[in-house]
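S.,

Sequence below, as promised.
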Amino acid sequence: MRKFLALLLSVMMSFAAPLSTLAGADDGSMGYSRLKDVASITGSRDNQLYGYGLVVGLKGTGDSLRNSPFTEQSMRSMLDNLGIATELGQMRSRNVAAVLVTANLPPFVRPGTRIDVTVSSLGDASSLLGGTLVLTPLKGADAEIYAAAQGQVVTSGYAIEGEAEEVSRGVPTAARIPNGAIVEQAVAASFETDRGLTIQLRNPDFTTAVRLTDSINGFAKRTWSGTVAKEVDSRTIALSVPNGVSPARFVAAIENIPVSVDQPARVVIDERTGTIVIGADVRISPVAVSQGALAVAVTELPQIVQPAPFSDGETAVEQRSIVDVEQTDGPVSILNGVSLSEIAAGLNRLGVKPTDTIAILQAIKSAGALQAELVLQ
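The prediction came back faster than expected:
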């Protein structure tokens, strides 16, 4: 019987959600990444574009012109530009929605290249499903027009409303137009003539910057018989393009150089979803932990009190509340982790839920035993 109960307990524990480690956890070996995956070359960045436009062809789900007067003004302006005179009376169409159009202009694009755009409602339209974006110029931060967008919008959300119930999924007032914009003007760049380039690490770290500089110089000595990189700070590395090599060929040669990326000891906690991410370098000093859950249940049992017969009393309701308090005692456990797997195993031995694990980690940090940065989201 004891063996059966032990087997049953082990099966039940297997269905729990323990704190586990993923691939490449903490075996002591360092993972290597390519330069292109951990850093970017300055001069080859995206540029953000935006524009104001109209989506037409909606099935009664557009802006109400009374609540969105700018939509009516835009409609009148568009019709006037088309040579159609509009009356001064108020327009009543709900097949049009005012939208904000945004896009990212990739580096090195030429006029005629197509890019994706995102369309977002500005008024009180309930859905952009089935609409078509009218020709919309897209400007950059310098107020210059770099692209023009037009086409049928694609949205994955929907909203169906009845008299007493509404069903919705996703966000029907935001949509995309794949290849919906044509680049009209290229962003001026001097990459082809630059002999000095700069590397920007996506996650600044002095150790990683020095390792990457040494890796680049080691490759450069074998290839061009000289050094080409110099670390500037925790994020920046300065590069010198060798003579006789184009910047494009130089970047292509070094962007696949492997580098051992160092990371700070950090614990990230998302209290909304109960997600806990623990870095491989996190350490916990020996600490004793005891955790007990407190459950409070309140039950309302109202009782009807009747007056005595042939009296002038009134029927009343007497409120009765039953409060049950239950607290489970948790044993005192010693938690000591010098590796990620040991920390995960120690927390799992406590047998607590993710929300309780978050509280335990915060308490360990307050006690000074968590040797890492604690990030709460």
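The chain has a mean pLDDT of 78.

Coffee later?
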